[in-house]
Write a structure and sequence with these properties.
354 residues; alpha/beta; QueA-like; Thrombin, subunit H; 2 domains; ten-stranded mixed sheet; six-stranded antiparallel sheet
């Protein structure tokens, strides 16, 4: 564990989401297990708002940075094998979000390559007689329509079908195919996310046990993620969530008693901020959240955030700035780039504390 001092900021001077260059060498192309590490051996930078300090550590040291009376809130949504190849072409269909009335939002991809434009009424044949039919645009992208409302007709129940014919959604920086187990968090209980809520990936049963032994409580929410919103001009889409009454009570009790509430992932922040009132009191709730968190919107439900390293111009950077403040975020990302931290779902993590 070392304390570091960041130098020049990587951000451009433009307004809006920070922009920086991410070298391909810092894109984690394989799980840490394939790189000779355990899940909890990835690097973790600890950044504190109070004094703008930065510390290099490993994720296994997480209990050292939390204290008796703190609360860690995790997203127990499990990852679906949501990428299904077309039966008669090189296309793949990404199942993003299951909507009411049996509909889905879907994305068409050129295999593991870029997303493709399409038209209403287009149909894609899937293995074993499955079929996806595009009905209408779900949301417009600056370059066209990326997500579609669609019917998904399968010859058997969803989870059984995906277990045979689906695979985890992966992007060009991932080298090789990895089993769905590599995309699951150890505490996942309810399948439903198109992409892994990846901030929680480094957790192991040992880390959880040491947190509890230290007096740190762990509480769940559920937020089923859709496919990522890759650009600043494309804000997060509505997502289905649930904050149990027990978790709402724990959050409120923790803050009332002087503890810190630390969210594991931007999904947790989004869910809790959906049900928090103007006085910082969290209520239980479920449904669909359209909450978008930016620096102009005060974060009331959490004190800290464990997250991955986000791509240049990603919409999540606005949420990070709301939690950390611009100056600390600049220092953190400058240090991460200088010290070779790894990005994406198989990469390193960033712990932001008061």
């Amino acid at each position: 564990m070392t304390t570091v001092t960041a130098s020049r900021s990587p951000w451009s001077a433009t307004a809006g989401p920070p922009q920086f260059d991410l070298p391909p060498s810092l894109e984690a192309g394989s799980p840490p297990e394939a790189r000779g590490l355990t899940r909890d051996a990835v690097r973790m930078m600890v950044a504190r708002r109070g004094d703008l300090s930065l510390v290099h550590a490993t994720f296994s040291e997480l209990p050292r940075f939390l204290a008796d009376g703190d609360l860690v809130v995790v997203n127990t949504s499990g990852t679906l094998a949501a990428s299904v190849p077309a039966a008669d072409s090189g296309l793949s269909v990404h199942l993003s979000t299951q909507l009411p009335a049996g509909l889905w939002t879907v994305e068409l991809r050129d295999g593991d390559g870029p997303w493709l434009t399409a038209s209403a009424g287009d149909a894609v044949a899937l293995p074993a007689g499955g079929r996806v039919t595009l009905l209408a645009p779900y949301a417009a992208h600056p370059a066209g329509v990326r997500l579609w409302v669609a019917t998904v007709d399968l010859p058997e129940p969803l989870h059984r079908y995906l277990a045979v014919h689906g695979s985890p959604i992966r992007y060009g920086y991932v080298q090789g195919e990895w089993p769905i187990a590599m995309y699951q968090n150890v505490y996942a209980t309810e399948p439903g996310s198109a992409e892994m809520p990846s901030a929680g990936r480094p957790f192991t049963t040992d880390v959880v046990a040491r947190l509890v032994a230290r007096g740190v409580a762990v509480a769940p929410i559920v937020l089923h993620t859709g496919v990522a919103s890759p650009e600043a001009s494309e804000p997060p889409y509505p997502e289905q969530f649930r904050v149990p009454a027990s978790t709402a009570h724990r959050v409120n009790d923790t803050r009332r008693e002087g503890g810190r509430v630390v969210a594991v992932g931007t999904t947790v922040v989004r869910a809790l901020e959906t049900v928090v009132d103007g006085h910082g009191v969290v209520a239980p709730g479920s449904g669909w959240t359209e909450t978008v968190i930016t620096p102009d919107r005060e974060v009331r439900s959490v004190d800290g955030l464990l997250t991955g390293w986000h791509e240049p111009e990603a919409s999540h950077l606005a949420m990070l700035e709301a939690v950390a403040g611009r100056e600390l975020l600049e220092r953190s990302y400058a240090a991460a780039l200088e010290e070779g931290y790894l990005w994406h779902e198989f990469g390193d993590v960033h712990l932001i504390l008061p």
